[in-house]
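Amino acids appear as letters; backbone shape is given numerically. Here is one record.
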Amino acid sequence: MPCRRERRSGASVVRHDAAMNRMEDLNVKACKEAITSKIGAISQNREASDSDRDDPKAMKPNPNSKQSRVIAMLQSSSGATIIAMMKATGWQKHSVRGFLAGVVRKRLKLKLESTKAGDDRIYRIVGKSDHNSNTADPKRKAA
């Protein structure tokens, strides 16, 4: 079955095509403007949340979260083993170790102490780590 355009006379087909092209151009332009405005809004929200994400103190931890439970276990005087953290969170061993290295040490910049007691290793947070301090020789002057 032939489409409508083919049934029309030559002049009306040209006018119809031109009108369709104008409508498509307007739709494309409207879509581009909408996308640009959405991207701008998203980037503004992301910039605002990035500043909160950079400062761990600005974030409000959920006291019932798995991460806060593990940190509470680590802050206790007796510390915690990987097995105990696995049972408290349901995580696997490699996830617990990744949390200790990535979140506790790097992101929160807490000093994590590890002691061996028999066959088990006990992890404990002993205080704030001073990663930002100048570790260069104090006798040397800065250039």
User: Anything to note?
Assistant: The longest helix spans residues 10-54. Residues 129-136 have pLDDT under 50 and may be disordered. Helices lie at 4-7, 10-54, 66-75, 82-89, 93-107.
